[in-house]
Design a protein that fits this description.
This protein is 21% helix and 48% strand. The protein has helices spanning 2-18, 113-116, 119-124, 129-132, and strands spanning 24-27, 33-38, 41-49, 52-59, 65-71, 74-85, 90-94, 103-111, 138-148. A five-stranded mixed sheet has the order 1-9-8-5-6. A four-stranded antiparallel sheet has the order 2-3-4-7, with no helix packed on it. The radius of gyration is 19 Å and the shape is globular.
C-alpha cells in the first residue's frame, strides 16, 4: 500500500509541474486587426495599415504606464517599447515587426505617484527601460504571452 501511495504522490507532483509552464493567450480575428487588453491597456495589432504593420496602444489608466513587448522565443528582439505614456493617451507605432503565430511576451507596468517626479528620467531610458526602473516606481505589473492567429 505504501508503494502505491508513493507512486500516486509522484504522479500528482509530475502533473502539477507539467502544468507550471507559461500560459499563452491565442488571439484570433476575422480581419487583420487584433485587439488585446491587459492591465487596462488596449493593444491593437494591425497587419494591413497603409504604413505596414502598426501597433496602437491606448492607456485607459489614470496613471502613466510603460509597455514592453518582445519575441518570447528571442527576448533580445524588442517588438515595441514605450517607457512612458500618460493616462488617457495613446501611442501609435508604424512598421512594427510582429508576425502571425509569433509568441509575444507583453509586459505592462503602471507607475505610482512617485514615478511622476521621475518621468523625464524614465522616458530617457529608451527601449530597455524595463531593465532600468526600480520596483519602487511601479504600482502594478502585468505579464502575459500572446499569439496572434
Amino acid at each position: 500500500m505504501k508503494i502505491r501511495m508513493s507512486w500516486l504522490w509522484l504522479g500528482l507532483i509530475a502533473i502539477f509541474l507539467a502544468g507550471c509552464g507559461e500560459e499563452k493567450t491565442v488571439i484570433q480575428s476575422e480581419t487583420e486587426i487584433y485587439s488585446y487588453t491587459i492591465g487596462n491597456i488596449e493593444l491593437i495589432f494591425n497587419f494591413n495599415s497603409i504604413f505596414g504593420k502598426e501597433l496602437t496602444m491606448n492607456n485607459a489608466n489614470d496613471r502613466a504606464v510603460g509597455v514592453y513587448i518582445v519575441d518570447n522565443n528571442n527576448q533580445s528582439q524588442i517588438i515595441f517599447s514605450d517607457g512612458w505614456t500618460w493616462g488617457g493617451n495613446s501611442e501609435v507605432e508604424d512598421d512594427v515587426n510582429f508576425n502571425h503565430n509569433q509568441e509575444l511576451k507583453v509586459t505592462v507596468v503602471i507607475y505610482n505617484d512617485l514615478a511622476n517626479a521621475f518621468s523625464a528620467f524614465i522616458e530617457a531610458l529608451g527601449p530597455n527601460f524595463l531593465e532600468e526602473i526600480e520596483g519602487i516606481w511601479i504600482q502594478d505589473q502585468f505579464e502575459e504571452i500572446i499569439v496572434l492567429q
